[in-house]
Amino acid sequence: MKKIDAHLHLAQVVAGYCRRGELRAIGEGKARWGNGEIFQLFPKAFGDTCFLAERALEIMDQNQVEKAVLMHGSMYGFQNGYHYEVLRKYPDRFCPSCTVDPFMKDHMETLKYYLEEQQFCLVKFEVSSGGGLMGCHDPFDLAGERMMEIYRLIEKNRGVVALDVGDISMDSHQPWALAKISRECPGLKIVICHLLAPVRGREREWMLSLELLNRENVWFDIAALPKIMAPDAYPYPETMEYLIRARDILGSDKLLWGSDAPFAATEDTYEHLCDYLEKGKGFTRQELENIYYNNSQRVYFS
Fold first, then answer.
1. Which of 130, 212, 229, 280 is the most exposed place for a label (fewest CB within 10 A)?
2. Which of the four pLDDT bands, split at 50, 70 and 90, describes residue 194?
3. Measuring CA to CA, how many Å separate 22 from each of 36, 50, 97, 232?
4. Are 13 and 77 in contact (CB under 8 A)?
5. pLDDT, the chain, mean
6. Distance between CA atoms of 116 and 49, rounded to whole angstroms?
7. Which residues does residue 8 pair with via DSSP β-bridges, in sequence order?
């Protein structure tokens, strides 16, 4: 079954920055935070100190992944320049994102350049308190005027915004704000990453948030769900239960499969992250085709 990976990260240079300070690669796929913490950022087989488009294409081709959406992430650091190179070199294989820090003095001018001059169609904001902008800045309103100005610019350019808002325990988790963005920018495609990062024991709140956000211009990627639901083991039966609940609320045309590799591939293989939906039960073939390919094609590549 052909696939589009709707949530993949590349890193020409690992230049992360978040609540633990800077993150730098130290070899064999490992990286060190500013506080001295060392962890496996990507599998050794993906690269020594970087993970590049050419290696990603080899891995994608081995797993029937036709295209990929390149997301920014705070662990990898801003990759705007490299994403632009990839956009120019592989326009039929990748949809790269751009990003800015909305607290940069010239963030609007910079974002306008990315959208209007460099022709990016996707803007990604990792705003989570755990690993994103709210780990570096005080909490802020995702539907406040600072951010709404950004969304209106993306909407004007017929673009897509992807938002990682973390889980329900975080100040960044603002489903009411996401609903407001959807209402006030009806021409903006909005993708909420990681299916709102469900938390065991708080399923009712998660499901109510999905119902609130079941709107025409809102989609959800399911990247990293197996990692979020750890220690769920391949083929991830508990993860599948959450996905079936989400399907029952949203329909299969609102879910986008993604891997969240390379970090997610440090705990299981990319192959397993690719095929667990096919190994499980509860989805028809048409639903799988929607989740694996058709929805991402419509959101990111049409």
1. 212
2. very high
3. 10, 16, 21, 31
4. yes
5. 97
6. 32
7. 70
Percent of the chain with pLDDT strictly greater than 70: 100
Q: Tell me the per-residue pLDDT of 143-154, one tens digit each, with 9 for 90 and over.
A: 999 999 999 999
Tokens linked to 42: 């990507």
Expressed in angstroms, the distance from the first to the final Cα of the chain is: 20
The token duo for 179 is 């609903």
pLDDT level of residue 130 (50, 70, 90 thresholds):
confident
Q: Is the dihedral of CA 246, 250, 252, 253 positive or negative?
A: negative
Instruction: Dig out the tokens for 9 from the structure.
Output: 């990260």
Owner of token pair 């990929």? 68
Using the 8-state DSSP alphabet, how is residue 291 labeled? I
CA 36 to chain centroid = 26
3-state SS class at 23: strand
Tell me: pLDDT of 291 over 90. Answer: yes
Tokens standing for residue 198: 């469900």
Q: What is the pLDDT of residue 131?
A: 86
Distances (CA, A) of 88 to 8, 122, 269, 288: 18, 15, 29, 30
